């Protein structure tokens, strides 16, 4: 199976990885939507993951797995449901993949890759101190706005820092 000619990660690949390493844990390097992607000979529109670990193919992410990732992101980053579906918020997330023989496609049981929602990576306690420092170092409202939009996601703790800095940087007017 190691030498299959598939363009994207498939359940047989995940099975092979688990057989070899005992688990299939990967870190999301990027998540994106694309159209007309060649997925093993078929043009496909969809969501895709690219992993940090070398040698792994991109993965097509079905709606069930997108929902699972969004739920994990919402829990770990303590963000809103809308923010958890923002693909940029998925970057850096470590996920565990497994094969579920009961996955259905178009009403047929075909088996497939699923996100293991019982997996909790110990390194996923996220540290926002660097982003907080960037916000606190701002000298103008324009700079604050620019820095805040590049933080990556509006984490609850960072929203309060942004609001605090906004109040501090807003010119006071005497009425």
Task: Walk me through this protein's architecture.
The chain is an alpha+beta fold. The chain has two domains: 11-120, no CATH class; 129-169, no CATH class. 35% of the residues lie in helices and 25% in strands. The chain contains six helices and seven strands, in the order H-E-E-E-H-H-E-E-E-E-H-H-H. It has helices spanning 11-21, 63-77, 81-84, 129-136, 141-150, 156-169; strands at residues 25-39, 42-51, 59-61, 94-100, 104-105, 108-109, 112-115. The strands form two sheets. A five-stranded antiparallel sheet has the order 3-2-1-4-7. A hairpin with a 7-residue loop joins strand 2 and strand 3 (59-61). Helix 4 packs parallel to helix 6 (156-169). The mean pLDDT is 84.
For the record, the count of structural domains works out to 2
Beta-strand fraction estimate: 15-25%
Can you tell me the overall shape? elongated
Q: How much is the radius of gyration in Å?
A: 20 Å
By secondary-structure content and strand pairing, the structural class works out as: alpha+beta
Listing every helix as H and every strand as E from the N terminus to the C terminus, the arrangement reads HEEEHHEEEEHHH
């Amino acid at each position: 199976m190691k030498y299959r000619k598939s363009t994207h990660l498939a359940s047989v690949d995940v099975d092979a990885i688990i057989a070899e390493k005992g688990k299939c844990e990967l870190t999301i390097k990027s998540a994106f939507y694309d159209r007309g992607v060649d997925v093993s000979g078929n043009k496909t529109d969809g969501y895709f993951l690219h992993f940090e670990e070398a040698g792994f193919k991109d993965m097509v992410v079905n709606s069930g797995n997108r929902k699972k990732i969004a739920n994990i992101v919402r829990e770990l980053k303590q963000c809103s449901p809308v923010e958890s579906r923002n693909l940029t918020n998925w970057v850096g997330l470590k996920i565990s993949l497994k094969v579920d023989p009961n996955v259905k496609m178009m009403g047929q049981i075909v088996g497939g890759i699923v996100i293991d929602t019982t997996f909790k990576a110990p390194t996923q306690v996220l540290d926002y101190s660097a982003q907080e420092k960037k916000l606190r170092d701002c000298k103008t409202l324009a700079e604050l706005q620019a820095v805040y939009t590049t933080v990556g996601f509006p984490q609850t703790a960072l929203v309060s820092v942004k609001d605090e800095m906004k109040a501090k940087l807003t010119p006071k007017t005497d009425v």
